[in-house]
Design a protein that fits this description.
Layout: E1 3-5, E2 13-15, H1 16-21, E3 28-34, E4 37-46, E5 50-53, E6 60-63, E7 68-73, E8 81-83, H2 85-88, E9 92-96, E10 99-103
Parallel strand pairs: 1-8, 2-7
Antiparallel strand pairs: 2-8, 3-4, 4-7, 5-6, 9-10
Length: 104
């Protein structure tokens, strides 16, 4: 599943389609300030895991930050999750010469 790493986003978000697919129940509602202005959004509790390669052929390990609250946003044809600073600050994000490396 594709995710957008957004250093300008204070918190992480998931799309309406992903919330339905995961059959999540909203905890509450908040007003989220988006690029298109304020929007009423459902809030969910979620644990997001990141796959990292290992030295073993075709094997990955999953690393996960703490369970967080994510807001629901409109569907997007390219990605299902926005990874905001609430997660990015728990790891290291390196951007250099068009290459991106994230580790927890």
């Amino acid at each position: 599943m594709k995710a957008l790493f957004d250093t300008g986003a204070t918190s992480s978000c998931i799309t309406t389609a992903l919330a339905k697919q995961l059959e999540l129940n909203p905890l509450s509602k908040i007003v989220l300030n988006t690029a298109n202005g304020p929007k009423d959004c459902n809030v969910y509790k979620l644990k997001i895991a990141f796959p990292f390669p290992t030295n073993k052929k075709n094997k990955i390990r999953l690393e996960s930050p703490n369970e967080i609250e994510v807001s629901e946003i409109n569907d997007n044809p390219i990605w299902k999750i926005i990874i905001g600073m609430d997660i990015i600050q728990q790891g290291i994000l390196v951007v250099s010469n068009g290459n991106y490396i994230f580790s927890l």
